[in-house]
Specification:
Length: 268
């Protein structure tokens, strides 16, 4: 693929990056995250591409809904830690897809095929329905990276309640797909080999609902989620703890703020 093609902004079914595919399956669109060399870690262009895919479906009369999934054994693990300097700019430039998914006119379903954390878990929560493979796992590691992700704290507490949100954020524990469904983090659990078929069936059902009535319901959910402390999150991303969290991640060690007796082998 030529450099000119790789650098071309989104247009039509091209999502602006070779690491996302926009597929048409009859009246349904599919956005596939496919960056195997980096385990589907998201660049700014990839985050914007997901946002564009949702908006693109909304504006295309030949399409009824969107399914988001990943390739291989990873759904979306969050942002590429190699592009740390991009993170504050992501918020300033509104590249992330989160608001677009909350406000999408047409149904959006996540088919969570594997590892789901960071921005990937936010995407899964904010899709209209999230269907997970029985191999999927879920984690919120931001506090181990020195990031005060106020968006996560805001959305999680509304999704699963404050007690469980604190548990996920403060311990960094990994949830199985069965636990994620039990906690209300996602909606459905299916055998891995039947994931795409099951998620497509859910999307087809959602696409049969009345558009105007559906929009009213989605507006109610959007109001329930409300706004988060964006100023605080941007400040955290520019602060010393985030810088140390990034360095520790790259160096595969515990951050300096961890008591010496509590430091673990490898990255947290």
């Amino acid at each position: 693929m030529s450099t000119a093609t790789v650098g071309r902004p989104p247009e039509g079914d091209w999502l602006g990056t070779p690491y996302l595919r926009f597929e048409r399956h009859g009246p349904l669109a599919r956005c596939v995250v496919d960056r195997p060399d980096a385990r589907n870690a998201m660049t700014p262009a990839m985050y914007f591409g997901v946002r564009y895919a949702s908006n693109h479906v909304d504006l295309d009369d030949s399409l009824a809904g969107l399914l988001i999934t990943g390739a291989g054994d990873v759904f979306i693990p969050g942002g590429d830690m190699g592009g740390w300097g991009d993170l504050p700019r992501l918020l300033y430039m509104d590249l992330t897809p989160f608001d677009a998914l909350r406000q999408a006119r047409k149904p959006v379903v996540a088919a969570v095929n594997g590892i789901c954390q960071g921005g990937g878990l936010v995407i899964a929560m904010l899709c209209d329905v999230a269907v997970a493979s029985d191999r999927a796992t879920f984690r919120v590691p931001e506090l181990y990276r020195g990031i005060a992700d106020t968006h996560y704290a805001h959305i999680l507490s509304r999704q699963i309640g404050p007690a469980r949100a604190r548990d996920l954020m403060l311990t960094g524990r990994t949830l199985t797909a069965a636990e994620a469904v039990d906690w209300g983090l996602i909606a459905r659990l299916v055998p891995h080999d039947g994931l795409l078929a099951a998620a497509t069936e859910v999307l087809e059902a959602a696409c049969r609902t009345a558009p105007a009535a559906r929009a009213d319901i989605k507006r109610t959910f959007d109001e329930y989620y409300g706004l988060y402390d964006r100023i605080g999150m941007v400040g955290s991303l520019r602060g010393p703890e985030a810088a140390e969290g990034y360095a520790a991640f790259k160096e595969r060690r515990s951050p300096a703020w961890v008591h010496p007796d509590l430091r673990a082998e490898g990255r947290l």
